Automatic annotation (TrEMBL):
Keywords annotated in UniProt: Membrane, Transmembrane, Transmembrane helix
Keyword Metal-binding: no
The species this protein was found in: Porosira glacialis
A Pfam family this chain is assigned to: Silic_transp
Name this protein carries in UniProt: Silicon transporter
Gene: SIT
A biological-process GO annotation: silicic acid import across plasma membrane
Transmembrane segments: 12-31, 51-75, 102-126, 138-165, 242-267, 274-293
InterPro entries to which the protein is assigned, alphabetical: Silicon_transpt (IPR004693)
Top-level taxon of origin: Eukaryota
Keyword Transmembrane helix attached: yes
C-alpha cells in the first residue's frame, strides 16, 4: 500500500518503493529466485539431496503429464524441422496409442492457450484487468507483446549463452553482433556470465510485474460482467490467474528456450541480444540485487 506509513519514511520514498512495485521486485528476485540459483550453482547435487526437491520434481512431472503445456512440443518439432537436426532422445519410439495420446494433449494445449489469450484480450478491451487507469487498450497490447518478447529473448539468451560457451571461438560465426556479444560475455575472468544472470532476473521480474497488470482479471463474480458470460464459478477460477501462467510459460519462456536451443548462433547474431546483455550487466552493476550473494 503506497499510502502506508512505514518507519516514518518520506512519502516520496514510499511511493517509489511501494507504489511502483520496486520493493516487491527486489524481494522476489533476491529471496525467491537469485538466492536459490546461487546456492544451486555452488551446491549442485547437495542442493537436490532432499525430499522437497524430489517432491518438486514429481509435481513438475505431473503438470507436464497433464498436457497443458504440450503445445510447446509442437513448436519444438517445427524448430527441429527448420534446423535440420534430429531430436536426441533415449525414449523408445511411440506406438500408435502413445502418438494419439501425445497429439491429443498437444491439441488440448493449443485450445487452452487460444482460450487464455481470448480471455485476456476480451477482459483488457472491456476494461476488466488490473492495468493502470488511463492507459489505452492499444498501448496495453503493445506493452504486452513487447515485454513478452523481451522476457522471451532473455529466456532464450540464457540457453544460447550456455550452449555457445561450449563452442570454440572459431566456430561462433562471423556475425558482427555475435562477436561483440561473445567478447562482452566472456571477457576478463568470466564474471559477466553470472552478472548477466542477475541482471536478467531483475529485468524478467520487472517485465512480468507489468505483464501481470495486463493479464490479471479484475472481475468480481456475480456482478453480471463475467468474461464471455461464463458461470460465476468459472470466473472465480479464471481470477486465480492460471490463464496468465499458461500464456507466459508457453509464449514468453518455453518457445524462446526451444528456439535458442535449436539456433544458438542465430540468437547471438541478433542485435537485440547484445543490447539486452548490456542492459542486464548495467542493472547488475548497480548492486541492487547483490544481496543474493550473501
Amino acid at each position: 500500500n503506497a499510502d502506508a506509513d512505514i518507519f516514518g519514511l518520506p512519502d516520496i520514498v514510499i511511493q517509489i518503493f511501494l507504489g511502483t512495485g520496486i520493493a516487491m521486485i527486489l524481494t522476489t528476485c533476491m529471496i525467491g529466485q537469485l538466492t536459490t540459483q546461487v546456492n544451486a550453482s555452488h551446491c549442485m547435487i547437495d542442493y537436490i539431496n532432499n525430499y522437497f526437491a524430489l517432491f518438486t520434481l514429481y509435481v513438475a512431472m505431473t503438470i507436464e503429464f497433464t498436457g497443458i503445456m504440450h503445445s510447446s512440443y509442437l513448436i519444438q518439432n517445427v524448430l527441429t524441422a527448420l534446423s535440420g537436426k534430429p531430436v536426441q532422445s533415449n525414449e523408445e519410439p511411440r506406438n500408435a496409442a502413445q502418438m494419439l495420446f501425445f497429439w491429443g494433449r498437444v491439441l488440448m494445449s493449443l485450445a487452452i492457450l487460444g482460450f487464455a489469450l481470448a480471455v485476456t484480450f476480451e477482459a483488457l478491451f472491456a476494461g476488466n484487468t488490473t492495468m493502470w487507469e488511463g492507459v489505452p487498450e492499444a498501448v496495453s497490447v503493445i506493452l504486452f507483446v513487447v515485454l513478452m518478447s523481451v522476457v522471451g529473448m532473455l529466456e532464450g539468451m540464457q540457453i544460447a549463452f550456455f550452449a555457445v560457451a561450449k563452442i570454440p571461438a572459431s566456430e561462433r560465426g562471423n556475425s558482427f553482433f555475435a562477436k561483440k556479444t561473445c567478447d562482452l560475455l566472456f571477457k576478463g575472468n568470466g564474471q559477466n556470465l553470472p552478472g548477466f544472470m542477475i541482471g536478467r532476473q531483475l529485468t524478467v521480474v520487472t517485465c512480468f510485474f507489468v505483464v501481470a497488470r495486463v493479464t490479471t482479471l479484475d472481475i468480481e463474480p456475480g456482478q453480471g460482467n463475467n468474461v464471455f458470460g461464463i458461470t460465476d464459478s468459472s470466473q472465480a477460477f479464471l481470477n486465480t490467474g492460471l490463464h496468465a501462467a499458461v500464456i507466459t510459460t508457453i509464449l514468453a519462456s518455453i518457445t524462446w528456450q526451444l528456439a535458442a536451443s535449436a539456433f544458438p548462433l542465430a540468437f547471438l547474431a541478433n542485435p537485440a541480444t547484445y543490447i539486452l546483455l548490456v542492459v542486464a550487466l548495467a542493472l547488475e552493476a548497480t548492486g541492487v540485487a547483490s544481496g543474493a550473494w550473501v
